[in-house]
Design brief:
The protein contains seven helices and 26 strands. By secondary structure, it is α/β, with parallel strands linked by helices. A six-stranded mixed β-sheet has the order 13-14-17-20-22-21, with no helix packed on it. Strands 1, 4, 6, 8 and 9 form a five-stranded mixed β-sheet that branches. Helix 1 packs antiparallel against helix 3 and helix 3 packs parallel to helix 5.
């Protein structure tokens, strides 16, 4: 994607943030528009620009595919406030891949412009995580930007804990962190695909944030306000990437979990993806983690290792229903699941009859980490893909 276009897209997204409303069952809204190949790159569908068939569009609940003319239309009744396109193979979006849905609209039209992607079967991408951005930690993200400018990967996957804190602070403080993050990544020369971490979940530690559960940005909605859908997908270079929100919350505390609406969405999407297309997931709290065993157990908040939900205790720092998620892809090619959260780079897999998935985590952009007698530098992982397969991975030290 053109770097100037990419930067302007992010800034437009930030300026439109006020239009979103809290996710809830709402009056039906008809969503419609065209997916088209933007021949002249102006972002607008002109008379000689044809539609593209079979592209997925979603409101984070329903998923439809564009028809032979590139047209889509469906009725949304569970409105998270966003509509998004799943970037198809062989193309990149010209402009934002998502759009806020204005409240109280009966009909909302959104066209999605696509540009041909570079014709190559080999590319690289960076997996980064945990910048915990504030003015004090900004140098870490700036260092990552300089590496991106030098290496020129196709894109960056950023797996959560984007901002210093939205859990336990006021709206003004949380939004300042979000605005700083959006402004900073708008200067990156390649797309940055984000998913939320626990630090993006606004206000849930109410005894500290003093934020009401009825606040329109409470919980996951602040993330959608600034960065769009908190789960989505895109395809690049023959690989289907699925970004998930693996952070849920119960009362005051977050924990690793893929919620039921997301599970239903994921099941729908899995039926629309060829079983031969490799799938790579990326999310914040990992499905499984070998490194977590090095940490000390704590049963005191806010750092408790466990959470009790309906009388059952769960470990907070891995996805409690990971097996349910992974089983959705049991008939697909699912080589790698990426995650952050722990601030340690690691790679492992279980020898399994059904699944051959590797579980990877990366270091933290914010700084070095230590635990269990190990020292981990700040860093990111560079992946190389060739002919639809990951053929190399390299840890790059930031500091």
């Amino acid at each position: 994607m053109n770097s100037n276009l990419f930067r302007s897209t992010l800034l437009v997204q930030a300026s439109l943030c006020f239009t979103l409303v809290a996710a809830q069952t709402v009056a039906p809204v008809t969503l419609k528009g065209y997916v088209f190949v933007d021949k002249n790159g102006n972002g607008t569908r002109d008379k000689d620009e044809g539609g593209l068939k079979g592209v997925m569009i979603s409101d984070q609940n329903e998923i439809v595919e564009s028809n032979a003319d590139g047209y889509y239309e469906f009725i949304s009744t569970y409105n998270n406030g966003v509509i998004s396109i799943s970037q198809p193979n062989g193309f990149v979006t010209n402009g934002s891949f998502w759009k806020p849905i204005p409240p109280n609209e009966k009909t909302f039209s959104k066209d999605f412009a696509l540009l041909p992607a570079p014709k190559t079967t080999t590319f690289t991408f960076i997996h980064a995580s945990d910048p915990h951005l504030s003015e004090q930690s900004l140098p870490g993200l700036e260092k990552l930007k300089s590496i991106v400018d030098s290496i020129r990967p196709a894109f960056v996957l950023m797996t959560g804990d984007l901002v210093k804190d939205a859990l336990r602070v006021s709206e003004n403080e949380a939004t300042a962190f979000y605005i700083l993050y959006v402004r900073t990544i708008s200067r990156f020369s390649v797309p940055v695909w984000n998913v939320p971490g626990n630090h993006e979940i606004f206000g849930i530690e109410r005894h500290k944030s003093l934020v009401s559960e009825k606040h329109p940005l409470y919980g996951k909605q602040m993330y959608r306000q600034y960065l769009g859908p908190d789960y989505y997908s895109f395809t690049y270079g023959g690989i289907h990437f699925v970004g998930l929100n693996s952070v849920d919350y119960h009362d005051l505390w977050y924990y690793g979990h893929i919620d039921s609406t997301q599970i239903k969405w994921l099941k729908k999407e899995s039926t629309l993806i060829s079983k031969q297309t490799p799938i790579i997931t990326f999310n914040h709290i990992p499905f499984y983690s070998g490194g977590m065993s090095m940490g000390e157990y704590s049963d005191e908040e806010p750092g408790s290792s466990v959470i009790s939900i309906n009388g059952k205790k769960h470990y907070r720092h891995v996805v409690t229903n990971a097996s349910e998620v992974i089983d959705i892809f049991k008939d697909h090619t699912f080589p790698i699941a990426l995650a952050g959260h722990y601030h340690f780079e690691q790679k492992f897999m279980f020898e399994s009859i059904k699944h051959k998935t590797e579980f990877h985590q990366t270091g933290a952009v914010v700084g070095p980490a230590s635990g269990g007698g190990f020292q981990m530098p700040s860093g990111v992982v560079l992946y190389k893909v060739s002919d639809g397969k990951v053929v190399d991975r390299k840890f790059i030290v930031l500091k």
